[in-house]
Amino acid sequence: MNKQNTGILSVPEGFEIIEGKGPFTDINGPFFGKIVSKEKVVRAFRVEKRHLNSIKIVHGGMLMTFADSALAAAVRHVSGRSSVTIKMNSEFLSPAREGDWVESDVEVIRSTRSVAFVRGELKVGKRVIFKADAIFHYVHARR
Question: Which residues belong to any copy of the Thioesterase domain (predicted)?
Fold first, then answer.
């Protein structure tokens, strides 16, 4: 593990903090990233107390927020283009708890001139906790 710290536990080797992704992400992060190959990027976050619901597991909205970010990051990494979510379907499979390291495993299935089709999983270790598939529309970034 390296010396980066989210306030609870260290961040696994190879992950760097993702900055400058907008106010909403800044409030819900920090999120971390690691480039695996030209086709694959991994996003992750360490579960903090503020991410929990009243029964002390990660709030579903946090998982959906993070998954949306991870899916969009994969689209950007593979295509080099900015995009916005048109549709995202999600499945909650298993809880994540405070201190867990949640990692994305995302695949861009198909990319057309205007949209990208993506699917992914969020995992704690080898345990899949969440699945999503989505469609993203390519946009021109405003300056």
Answer: 57-126
| 92-134 pLDDT tens trace | 999 999 999 999 999 999 999 999 999 999 999 999 999 999 9
Helix, strand or coil for residue 64? helix
**For residues 94 and 101, what is the distance between their CA atoms, to the nearest angstrom?**
14
User: Minimal CA–CA distance to 48: which of 6, 16, 92?
Assistant: 6
Under 8 Å between Cβ of 82 and 76: yes
CA 104/CA 83 separation, integer angstroms: 18
Cα 44 from Cα 27, distance rounded (Å)? 15
Q: Which helix (H) or strand (E) holds 61?
A: helix 60-79
Task: Using alpha carbons, list the distances in angstroms from residue 19 to 16, 32, 141.
Answer: 9, 9, 17
Domain architecture of the chain: domains with CATH: 16-139 (3.10.129.10)
pLDDT in tens, 25-70: 778 889 999 999 988 999 999 999 999 999 999 999 999 999 999 9
Cα–Cα nearest to 70, from 44, 47, 88: 44
